[in-house]
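Hello support,

Our group uses your service weekly, and this is the first time we've seen a run hang past the timeout. The protein is Methyl-accepting chemotaxis protein. I'm not sure whether the cause is the sequence or the server load. Input pasted verbatim:
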Amino acid sequence: MDKDVSFRPSRRPRFDNSELTKTGFWVGQVFMLIATVMGVYLAAQQGLAQAIAFDDLDDQQNNYYLRRSLHDELADNIQVIRDYTATLEKEKPYHLDRYHPQLQFYVWDAMRYNPNTLQTPSQFLSGVRRYYAEIQDIISKGEQRTYGVHFYINLLREKTDAVEKSTLKDMADDIGQLKLDLKKAGVDVD
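Update from on-call engineer: The timeout came from a worker crash unrelated to the input. Re-ran successfully.
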């Protein structure tokens, strides 16, 4: 039987391991390891900083739209109350409940479930909440004739003027500042 030389298992080549015993090799490997760890660490830090900055801008943008919507809803409700008091003065109805104002609370109610609500300054939330509670109480007492019509109309106007001059104006200023901050960061709103 002829043995074919090409099928013989060849001997493994010997590796030269003499480099492993030299100090220069190990020093180079240590520096490569340190450089890799430092590079990964610095990249992770930069990535984290970018992620935090993006999240902050996203929260600010969402809160801008939330505040803007609340401001617009409050302004609309103020106008509804103004129209309501003008109608009461003009028509002098006996049954006030037939003229009950249709206030809108969609944004106000939706804010309960929005995680950005508590990023809204508390003076705005408190001002709007207080106004809505007072107006609803005044309307209820006015329709039940607890208050006289003239006193009732004046009380509605007084509360509406107060919230318009304070909360609504301050909200508009705050929204304007937030819009400028977002614009400086390169985020266009509206």
